[in-house]
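Fold it.
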Amino acid sequence: MIEKIKVIGIGDEGRQSLLPIYEKWIYESEVLVGGQRQLSFFPDYPGEKKVIKGRLSDLVTFLKEETKKVVVLASGDPLFYGVGSYMAKKLDVEIYPYLSSIQLAFSRINERWQDAYVTSVHGRSMNGLAQRINGREKIALLTDEKNHPAAIARYLRSFGMTEYRVFVAENLGSETERCAFYELEELETKEFSSLNVVILQKKAEGKTWSMGIDDEEFHQRKPEKGLLTKKEIRVLSLMALNLSETSTVWDIGTCTGSVAIEACLIAKEGQVFAIEKNEHDLENCRLNQLKFRTDFTAVQGKAPDHLDSFSDPDAIFIGGTAGSMDDIIATCCSRLKKGGRIVLNAVTIENLMQAVEQFKNNGFETNITLAQISRSKPILNLTRFDALNPIYIITAKHKEGES
């Protein structure tokens, strides 16, 4: 019977971080697998060494075919943004964790971390980080050589998130460990070891937003009006989209970005993609992204062009079609994930009829809400109601039993 593969977490201090039994298992093994740094802690290892590089799927293929006794070394806790989770799904393994870098970093500032928001920008884009962390009291970030503390500081300052001070912990557990607090401004020109953890602590209240942002808060065309999806219609449309925290959302004809921005406030852990054909409107959209601390992908173009570069959506909002309604609806219907929704806002009866017909042609069923909104308006020392344009809110879904 082949023994289970042992996956052992190890700290930057090398062998000193291991229990005696773990070290015994390592030297009893015939193949030692790990990163170059982890393997360097065992120069006298008598067996075969294999460096982890490339795709993890290649490593799993190697391990499935290996008949010798294997130990895999991983940094810190293998189940904390490490190889452990992936290997456990593919192989018969036993996992023995060491302290994670996050645990060690919080211990250096004597701060509890069960209520911290933990995320990683290691090997991934910082896109979307702003809405994920905004308003949180304490945040822990795993970094890499590209998304280093200075880059994080520049990113936060671009969104005006200066209410945070930063703790950087380098080379935790090693002889070259260095830990210190910094202000964001200090970090932009400093260099750090590639092995570091960043903790953000909120030192003052910052601006947060909830659903139903007032129209006048948005940068928008002036003196022209009416190009913004009005607050009441925006809220009804977002509710119809049925978003979750992890939704992937498209906003077609985003204009000022109001719907995309509010979608980001709901789908904090998801992705939001927006397209707008007018350069001036897109510039306002980008200004609004910074103001409302929402970081989503916004491109200039006329849909359905460029939609092939967006991830498949769980929800799509169509606020404008610029005469390409049939092509846009066809593309959206073909890309929407099963169980998703498309919400289209129409102002005219002709556009309503065209949209419903096209959804039907693409195998979708529709539900229509006619929203007739009036707002109070002062007149002398009295109050009257001022009507907004009626809007047809069309919600389209796959017909039951179809995808």
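DSSP finds 13 helices and 19 strands in the chain.
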